[in-house]
């Protein structure tokens, strides 16, 4: 009988294990995550733990742990992974001053990220840019307009940055009341990090004032940790007070872990640990083992790079103990359990999100809404805007008028469709309107390109011969070949093959043709590519390129003689992610102002679409042009060639509307004099052209506000490498800027009444209520951004004012709203020099409320804290 019962029990137990596929407690979905983590951790060897501490985490097959790639990006849409909705660049989204709109953007982004992850899992793929840990948002303070990566931030103000950053994290990570997280976001780059790009691997942000640290550089990170419960923090490349940020005990242990209570993962920026010991970098440590041990002791859990491979050696040498490695591995495992990555996907609700959401019509509408809200009207002489169609003779000019790639910004995906500004304006015109397009000039150089693709041929047929192989080495018989008769744009986004019978991945191609120029001069070949490229001219390789982090623009210039044949061949191969290859060839021509003005003689109005481009400003770039260095800028003026064109148009009697596309402030003093209107369009994303046209023609009333001060020129700026806030941003600037923080015009007018406080004297810990009547005195509806600033009387070294709240509201024509703000003790905190902390403290204060940070736009009310 006992044998029978025991046999039945074994049969029952075996059926349960088989049904649930559980061998160990960590595989039991019914157990709490911490129990599962503890069980798994004690089963791992040191070598296996080290494998899990690298961004490309290898599988532990004996325990059934899948490989996982921690590196993914979603700065303003799922990035570097092919098809995705591309929203405006973050600096543009910050100009919306709209909390809810930003949440909607990142809720859509997280839907697309989960959908793409679900698809990749179904294909058995675990590559880079396919995971659930998104290394965004960038919440560093845009302290200097020359910083190239400022385009990734939410501007210069700590409060605005914190508010927008919190919304981005909440949209990405999803509701906090479920068993599994939707995604994990990452606050970066911790903490005192905002350029220069060119020396970031050796730069030491030293001698930072305690006030600047806690009042300017840290608040947004603290908000994301405490309010948004962000699950990852990325430490920066540079040093802070002598220590590399990823090895800073003060930043990572004393402030982040102990003071703020952060329990999530700290990830090193890619290659940052190697900077500890590399020549021409920080060189604070002798080798990878000592550097890796120091980083782990300081609290850096995950290495994006290969340095942590040396942790096994570090344990053997006694540089670090296994129990200290366990601290980091426990955090990494907990994240993977919380994301559902360790469980069967049928148990994870987020796995049900369909790929149909990717680049959907609903998400395009969100992109359009945000692009509209981001556009900032800076000047509108004689109310030239909005334009009225019907017999309008308009010329569209400028280097950014039909550049779709510019609109995508950086750290971007590939949209299904992009509406350029030229296309948006064309679509807005009526049947009686006339449009002339003239590119006129390039961004910086005195040259531009005109396509000569029709002068290329292969065996007498126009264009290039394309041959494809379903391997990366062009081996064996080709899969197919075809003639490319026009400039081409190929991309595998959305499971679209380069050609029939060609695979989506692991393929290669050759493109060959003969170029017979119709004139002598300089030609340029332009590629926008993601993959491996090799260009050959007349049997000699003249250029090669490889991308690992999404598509990049590549060019090659050469001198040609009229009538001579040039054999052109270029090879391409898939590398990782979605492959992309755009190609055109054309003549480089000198910009000719007189000729261009003659070409638009019939137009009485010019929309000049200028500015700069993400190809000029961004992360550690190799740009070698006047005014630019390593992705940063040395001059903030509009490039000379564009200034010359706008001035010449003015002198020719043309009314000019200047559209500025940039991710940073441009010195536009000359353009103010030579233009009737100035519109700041940022890098507006896939729907940017429609959004700009909607503003120009009055379909949408502009409502963007500047999230960063626009300076006149570099004479208004302190030294770029000085991290003191004195003289920087609206909070400390004494000079009058070109356009102040918070500034932006509308097609209607708003009038502010006198603000009222519910009490003039409060005690520490009380919330104060501010009420201000705001009236739309114009004849059309519009949005207003009501801004509240705080100032402490008698603080000679503190900010002249600092943002403490804002509200974006819609008004009908003639409508008055009583706008109520409840200013909490947290918002009333001010620097305490004695305690070296931000605290509510006694004293006399002023609240200033209005439409921008400029004194003339603000109304003041005083109160006292006792």
Automatic annotation (TrEMBL):
PROSITE patterns cross-referenced by the UniProt entry: PA14
Keyword Signal: yes
SMART domains, per database record: Fn3_like, PA14
Annotated keywords: Hydrolase, Signal
InterPro entries named in the record: BXL, Fn3-like, GH, Glyco_hydro_3_C, Glyco_hydro_3_C_sf, Glyco_hydro_3_N, Glyco_hydro_3_N_sf, Ig-like_fold
Residues in PA14 domain copies: 459-601
Domain of life of the organism encoding this protein: Bacteria
MF (Gene Ontology): alpha-L-arabinofuranosidase activity; beta-glucosidase activity; xylan 1,4-beta-xylosidase activity
Gene Ontology annotations of biological process type: arabinan catabolic process; xylan catabolic process
Family, per entry: Belongs to the glycosyl hydrolase 3 family.
Protein's UniProt name: Glycoside hydrolase family 3 domain protein
Annotated source species: Pseudopedobacter saltans (strain ATCC 51119 / DSM 12145 / JCM 21818 / CCUG 39354 / LMG 10337 / NBRC 100064 / NCIMB 13643)
Upper classification of the organism: Bacteria, Pseudomonadati, Bacteroidota, Sphingobacteriia, Sphingobacteriales
